[in-house]
Amino acid sequence: MKPFIVLIVAFGLSLLGTKFMMGNFEFAFSGRIAMSVMLIFTAFAHFAFTKGMAMMLPDFVPYKIEMVYLTGIMEIAFAIGLLIPGIRVMVAWLLILFLIIVLPANIYASVKQINYQNGSFDGNGLAYLWFRIPLQILFIVWTYLSSVNA
Rounded CA gap, 18 and 47, in Å? Predict the structure, then answer.
């Protein structure tokens, strides 16, 4: 829920900023800024809640801690890349692929009732997927519309 709120607030503030600075609403640019802010926000979770995020990965995934750090760094790189015109479209496609690839970890965490913030097994469970899967689809569509189809 927090990433969604960050995305929407950042989008609204970006829209107001572009209207004030450029004289008109820049929806695609504001969308990229909002996605970048959200990615930075979620990347920090990889470093603040490393143990719990590592628990989200199935047993067959090696080097869980390193994978959590790597994906956090990747999210920061995506956030920066979305704002660089020359590589924006390529980065957007890579981010869309990344969002598809990490969805199974969210499903696994829900099935196992993992609370990544506490590193415990008292999470929301399968009910969380009713929110998380549509949210992941929103992130994919948002990235496409603001970065690929802009």
Answer: 32
